[in-house]
Amino acid sequence: MRRTLACALVMGALFAATAGAQNFLDNEHQKAGREYEKQATAAMDSGDYAKAAELADLASNEYRLSREFAEAQTAKFRAANAINIAQQTINDASNGPKRKTNAKEIAAASALLAKARALFAQENWVDSRARALEAL
């Protein structure tokens, strides 16, 4: 029974590794999780099921942290992309033939973009992206 439980924990940790952070497989947490997983497998093979379960829990925690890291990086990149698109749109509008008639809209968009940049600097990726998209 203990061996089955330990094996299930190790397999669950392995599943967690493949389910999340697929584009960021080389982050620190992913590497630590893989190392704990190897140790858990070795402990299970040697019959130390309590140690295997403990190491599997550590691996699972590292994989959870890896997913959180990947989600944060995704949000960061999406915010940066939205800021770049908003900046390009503002530049195009500012240099276009209707720049004088759209001056108020350009100024409002520039203010929103400034807020987006400030939120980005504060590492508030979700709100930063939202402000940048409003600037469009």
Topology:
Elements: H1 2-19, H2 28-45, H3 49-95, H4 103-121, H5 125-135
Search tags:
mainly alpha
Explain what you see:
The chain has five helices and no strands. The longest helix has 47 residues. The protein is an all-alpha fold. Helix 4 packs antiparallel against helix 5. About 10% of the residues have low confidence.
Outline of this structure?
The chain has 136 residues and is mainly alpha-helical. It has helices spanning 2-19, 28-45, 49-95, 103-121, 125-135.
Order of helices and strands: HHHHH
Number of helices: 5
**Cα-to-Cα separation, first versus last residue:** 59 Å
* Strand composition percent: under 5%
